[in-house]
Model the fold of this input.
Amino acid sequence: MNNQIRTRFAPSPTGYLHVGGLRSALYGYLYAKKTGGKFILRIEDTDQGRLVEGATEKILAAMKETGLIYDEGPDVGGNYGPYIQSQRKNEYMKYALELVEKGAAYYCFCDKARLENLPDVNGARRYDKHCLSLTKEQIKAKLDNGEPFVIRQNMPTVGSTTYHDCVYGDITVANSELEDQILIKSDGMPTYNFANVVDDHLMAINCVMRGNEYLSSTPKYNLLYDAFGWEKPMYIHMPVIMRDAQHKLSKRNGDAAYSDFIEKGYLREAVLNYIALLGWSPKNNQEKMSLIEMENLFSIEGINKSPAIFDPMKMNWLNGLYIKEMDFDAFMDYATPFIQKTKVAGKYDMVKLCKLLQGRIEFFGEIGDKVDFLEEFGEYDTELYINQKQKSDKEIAATVLPHVLETLNSVETWENSALYEALKNLAVSLDLKNSQILWPTRIALSGRDSTPGGATELAELIGKDETIKRLKFSIDLLNK
Ligand code: GLU
Done:
């Protein structure tokens, strides 16, 4: 085997790049980088019926955006191209015929009606090798006659096939479990299973990394390698990603596409970082890692066999860390389009607003919810004033708010530090704790118990007139 690792990401362009796909790409990239190997991108689009327009472009764009730069691929070329299977479609038939020649594959002319009436074997409908018994002459006659055919892999019926997976160890499958899968379809196109193996060989791929849904079909692929007399790659299967204990994370349940996360305002570095942790952890258990750090820390031993659970809370937490660390200008640039989509667009000082938001959001899509109180203020539940920790209740609120109104009304410079100073002094003069002034004030100004920014930061942002108006409204509400 060539010593240099050549591994590939081989997505089928059937939709957006989803979390599982991105993880396969990432681990392949990391392993290639770590070992000084090559990372290849191949588009597996032989199943024309499942193609989604524009999906290939989206995959290429997502790879570039996340920094998973491939050494060879459709748009960058390489010595083993083309890297899009539909552009290699004339290659496959000759390999299938080589297998027919060797007895490892055979022509099948069975029609739909016959296939649909095959008896079930152990609960699954299996092809019964009917056409394996056709003689050379019979086959020739049918071909000359223009009868439609497929080419099937001739699986052994007894014994078992074993291979070694770097994560899961030795995997053995009884050969009787393996169906004579179709290699070439009736339209002459290869199936995904066949093209995948032929291309891995032709592209000198010596390390196959992919999701563990392929763990039990790998023996079929290995039987193809053996039949051709080709050297088999090493296998690294990755654990399944679950939404919860029972359900796989799936494209159908939404939320699993990389682009959805970006649209919702997650940062690409954070998404990639979180996805890295779905099935792998570095020896030092570090959680927040840049791509370069991951390259250094990655190892196959760190890949886990057990299912990974996609935990949105953890992803939010991690994304929040990245947001806090953004430099302020970058934060503003990122936040601006999200703010523009809300009702507060164009109404507030962006620097002040962004300063309040930066430490208080976990993803940018939250901005709408965080700021809508700035524009929507009205009746709210006065129970919010009750807060044991802040030593506040409705009575205290009703007592302090008129003082707050008077105090703020006479502050000269409408600016957070002066407003804060004034309320602190008020607390001293009323012999109350700061929180007993600040908590009711914040509720009074927002009608919320959670806001970006404290009482005086909010007051500064909404301005004096609005502050006074809201305080009066809240005093009335408490006296109702
Ligand atoms: N085209 C297959 C998929 O998208 C690739 C599987 C493999 O990596 O071998 O699942």
About this structure: The mean pLDDT is 94. Residues 10-12, 44, 192, 196, 208, 210, 214 surround glutamic acid (CB under 6 Å). The two ends are 83 Å apart (CA to CA). The longest strand covers residues 160-165.
